[in-house]
Input
Amino acid sequence: MDPIQGLFYGFSVVLTTSNIVACFIGVVLGTVVGVLPGIGPIGAMALLLPSTFGQSPTAALIMLAGIYYGTMYGGSTTSILINVPGEAASVVTCFDGYQMARKGRGGAALTVAAVGSFVAGTLGVVVLMFCAPFLAAQAIKFGPPEYLALILAGLILVSRIGEESMVRSLIMLGVGIALGTVGMDPGSGGVRFTFGRNDLAQGIGLVPVAMGVYGISEVLTIAETITQIPQRIKVKLLELFPTKEEWRRATPAMFRGGILGFLIGLIPGPATIISGFYSYVLEKRISRRPQEFGKGAIEGVAGPESANNGACAGALIPLLALGLPFGPATAMLLGGLMIHGVQPGPLFITQHPDIFWGVVASMYIGNLMLLVLNLPLVGVFASILRVPQKILMPLILMICVVGAFSVNNSILDIWVLIGMGIIGYFLKKFGFNMAPLLLGLILGPMMEEKLMTSLMMTRGNLWDILARPLTAAILAGCVAVLVLPPLISLIRRSWKHGINLRTDR
Amino acid sequence: MGRLERFVSLSLLAFSGVYLAESLTLGFGNSKLPGPGLLPTIVGIFLTFLVSLHLITDFLNRRPLEEKSKKRPLLPGRDSVRIVEMLLLLGFCGVFISKLGYIVTTIVLVGASLYFLEMRGWVRITLISIVTSGGSYYFFRVMFDIPLPQGILPF
Output
């Protein structure tokens, strides 16, 4: 099926009542979650996984994907109107968005953010539509060693690219992989680390862990200091239209941000967050008026908002074409598919064309829905912030309990949820990021399986694994990313030191 | 490094130590036929090394003596009481949900957490907790047919 045929097929799948409703619920919930500070797309997807059990896998993925990209739209609203980012990807939008709102240009900032998100989201889906089937066709030729290299690269890069200390990220990655080894061993079929508990034999589930570290720990963090949401700046409908000059400045930034975000989305790591920062730096660097950045430059809103939506579409390519999630949000999407008995991988597009093309088509519709919803209803979404956190937090607790229990009907999962919530709360308090833990948990078992198969395939000859061209290229790239930055900074420092010594003489 | 942070790091070290010790009992197999302990041992060594490195670097970068000498509680202020209350509540939920069932436990969970989060007025708290618990039961159990712990109630 070529991409155009596929797209038409996708529209025929998505244009049914249940799928359209799933898409609508997903994007609305995504926007709401984006507006509310604290929950974030991963927590929201984890919380809403149980509600997808009664749906078809297509409707479930359409809804979860809607939450994922819908969050990016909602996050900008609070960043612009009250200087509080609804989720981490919208932090950069605060810099200039809030300053524009203070100058009475909040409406223009909101419109540019929504249109930029739409442009980048749609562009991203177009590229996804052409790239993913091509990459999947190539990936059929991949053997276990290539997959092993890809997973290793993903895990290492995730810990390298985050803003936190690399050691802390690697520790969390190790903890995640360790938790992933609990239960059945893929080689012998025996059980490990179960301490005599039969219910641990099937392993520690992604859903209770994700709900614990993102849901329960967030409730505990908020309970620690119940914050007051600042007064928002009000925007009237007529103020939503940017001026000609604002459009002229914002349009190229939207395209640049969209392309940059999409490319960053392909790299393992928290793509939606870092793409915004990179886009902001890029816009400031190439701007003729860099002094305006931080004081209300419209490019500072258009670029990052487009970038985080582009990154959303980009991050779906490794998931849908290779079956490898390179970020925590896509790990949740994978979890959602696996719960419905669907295993993504190179054969996913040929074996489940209804899900793949249905999701692609739903993203066109979802982006359009978001554009229509976000502009006239911006006031309604911003008013969600009036719901007291005192009411919201107990609700999250309750949904977490339902979600954790309902996957396996197991009380043990409730204990995992509570335990991971408490552990997550303390770890987050001291700067540990939970994303590598989640990725380690989901990619760890895959890595072990590929490692075992690779070793058996090559009769334990590691050189045979490393000598395969693609494996070698991926691992060399990975080593370069790890080694080059500290090496370059070391050379720079010693070079500067040399210059200082010469000038002292 | 504060007391609580040191406690967290030491707990991580204990976790990695126990994990490594357990991994070593599993058996590596050989390179042609790897055993169940191969990856866990590699991960255990890697984790123990990293947590030790983290502890050592944080110990070397510790605050000056005069700052350290000021005794501080593990979690300061009224907020810490709220956290402990919430933790106890979660523990209660874990222990009793299988015996009391979803509805009763979530009524207690929501009601108590509303109270701990400083909402006042018993009528309001009771109403919110009954409505949210009943509403969520209807949404998940009746509408989506998701199984929930039954407990003492017949449904």
